Amino acid sequence: MITILSIETATSICSVAVHQEGRLLASAELYLEKSHSSSLSLLIEQLISHCDLHLADLNAIAVSGGPGSYTGLRIGLSTAKGLCYALDIPLIAVSSLDAMSFHVQHYGPEQNGLLVPMIDARRMEVFYKALSPSLKEIEPLSNLILEENSFDKFTEKYSTLYLFGNGAEKAYKLYQQKGNFKILEDVNPSAKFLGHLAFF
User: Where is the Gcp-like domain positioned along the sequence (predicted)?
Assistant: First the structure.
């Protein structure tokens, strides 16, 4: 049975999760305004214990490959690398944007809709990409300063633009009055999504 520990530190929410055969066993998260470094190892230890597992039971570790906070990503990656080296298991880097999009597939987006995951890059800037509901890449990862006409190139072609991630919160103010935008407020970068995508 393949057991994967996932680590997500791209934003101020530090989360970890354990999946077996792609099924979520348990997860834990903390909101941290400052560095994840002091809490991440303890969070992992507590979660592994909660699952009645040992580190030696892990077959792989999935870690956020970004985009997001440079410091947070560096801490997550260095922790994951250290564990993989000690346990001699593979490290799987997963895009936080792709992992969120994989999860949103279960919301049943319209066939002619467009998935637009976003991660906050401060002020009115976001990291984003655009994908079809089947996860075909329509626009690659890029950074964008949000303006009222930022997505005009998509609005005529696609029936609904699904915006999600912690960058979508500020997009909501700009696009809430536009009929073909839908904000999925409860979808943010999470280790719960990483492990599922890493397995499949």
Answer: 33-188
More confident residue, 136 or 200: 136
Instruction: Please report which helix (H) or strand (E) contains residue 70, including its range.
Output: helix 70-87
Here the tokens at position 27 are: 């997860």
Which ranges in 51-181 belong to alpha helices (H)? Answer: 70-87, 96-104, 152-155, 168-175
- Any idea which residue has 């964008």 for tokens? 144
Cα–Cα distance list, 82 to 43, 88, 183, 192 (Å)? 16, 10, 37, 21
* 164-179 per-residue burial string, b: 16 or more CB within 10 A, e: under 16: bbbbbbebeebbeeee
Q: Is the per-residue pLDDT at 34 higher than 70?
A: no
Q: Quick one: angle between helices 96-104 and 191-199, nearest 10?
A: 80
Dig out the tokens for 95 from the structure. 């895009």
Pairing of strands 161-164, 137-145: unpaired
Q: How far is Cα 81 from Cα 84, in angstroms, rounded to an integer?
A: 5
**Nearest residue to 80 (alpha-carbon basis) of 53, 65, 62:** 62
Asked if residue 141 lies in contact with residue 129, where contact means CB atoms within 8 angstroms, the answer is yes
Domains of the chain by start residue, with CATH: 3-95+189-199 (3.30.420.40), 97-184 (3.30.420)
